[in-house]
Design goal:
CATH architecture: 3-Layer(aba) Sandwich
Largest sheet: 4 strands, parallel
Radius of gyration: 15 Å
CATH superfamily: HAD superfamily/HAD-like
Strand order of the largest sheet: 2-1-3-4
Structural class: alpha/beta
CATH class: Alpha Beta
Distance between the termini: 37 Å
Strand content: 15-25%
Shape: globular
Number of helices: 6
Order of helices and strands: EHHEHHEHEH
Amino acid sequence: MDSGSDTSGSMTLAFELAALKRLADPNAVFNDARGWTEYVGVVSEKPTYVVTNFTRKERIRQDFFSGPRGVTESLSNVKRQFDTDRHVFIGTTDEDEAIAAECGWEFLDLEAAADAAGWDLTDPEAKDDPFEGSDRDDWP
């Protein structure tokens, strides 16, 4: 995302996991975002291991993640911990937008963010975790 000529403000950027999975190259997006944000991370209602496995596989270094908390609690905690001028949440649904508003975050739809930043999107089904929702009992 092009920060333009305004470099006076600081920003914390959070991606909902579903939005992150729609990016063709999530690692490149995180590296790009580090050029114009102070903090960037991932929040999700999914279990911690799902987020961790995805970010590890994509080689994403995040400054924060939701852990065992849900999106609402995570965004509230991140806003308290990371004192920046702006807190922007990138998501894909009306529910994501409502959560952002509830937590005092700016909401940015993934497609609008990708268009503005020149990020490539992919088919949302293409990167699904084959073990997510599995009944496997041998998962560590």
